[in-house]
Amino acid sequence: MSKIKVMLVEDSAVAMSIYEKMLNSSPHTEVVGKATNGKEGLELIPQVNPDVICTDLQMPQMDGLEFTKQVMAHYPVPILVLSNAVQKTDTDNIYEVMKAGAVDVMAKPQTAGGADSAAVQKELITKIRVLSMKKVTAKPLS
After folding, report:
1. Which of 54, 104, 129, 131 is most buried, by the most CB atoms less than 10 A from its CB?
2. Interatomic CA distance for residues 35 and 8, integer angstroms
3. CATH code of the domain containing 30
4. At 30, is the secondary structure helix, strand, or coil?
5. pTM attached to this predicted model
6. In total, how many domains does the chain have?
7. Which of 19, 14, 74, 6 is closest to 42 using CA atoms?
8. Residue 63, SS3?
9. Which pLDDT score is estimated for 111?
């Protein structure tokens, strides 16, 4: 079975490194590309051809919402929004990214390690495995 190719779009080097470790340590997933903002991410997609994209929302140059809209218009791929801005209380943000075409959201883990990280890793990989089976259709920019 081939691994699910995941592209990470995240401006925090610490978060990027944590996600990359989690995903590369799983037999199901591998990180094939990394970008620090949506603009870089868009340029990278045709080169790495990911099965799933994980993106942050709050980034310089192009934020995760605009990035999601652009991806869905040009390279429809299932998107998981991994961000502090999608806690259960952030209903407006969650609504906007889902409307833009994201398939799922996950709040960024609040701890940098510890007992929690195994649960976070399991949730992240489960979400990515589910997303990799989803067929998404292009959404023209309005």
Report:
1. 54
2. 6
3. 3.40.50.2300
4. strand
5. 0.91
6. 1
7. 74
8. coil
9. 56
Return d(Cα 79, Cα 98) in angstroms, integer: 9
pLDDT (tens place) for every residue of the chain, 142 residues total: 689 999 999 999 988 998 999 999 999 999 999 999 999 999 999 999 999 999 999 999 999 999 999 999 999 999 999 888 777 777 888 889 999 999 998 888 665 555 567 888 899 999 999 999 988 888 888 7
The residues with which 105 forms a beta bridge, in sequence order, are 81
Domain assignment present for 76: yes
- Give a yes or no: residue 139 inside a domain: no
Structural domain contains residue 11: yes
- 129 is written with which tokens? 């495995």
- Looking at the DSSP bridge assignments, the partners of residue 29 are 4
Assign residue 49 a region (left: φ > 0; alpha: ψ between -120 and 50; beta: otherwise).
Answer: left
As given in the structure block, the two tokens for residue 57 are 């929302």
Question: Do residues 65 and 100 make contact, with C-beta atoms less than 8 angstroms apart?
Answer: yes
Closest CA to 4 of 64, 41, 42, 54: 54
| 17 Cβ contact list (under 8 Å, min separation 6) | none
105 domain-assigned: yes
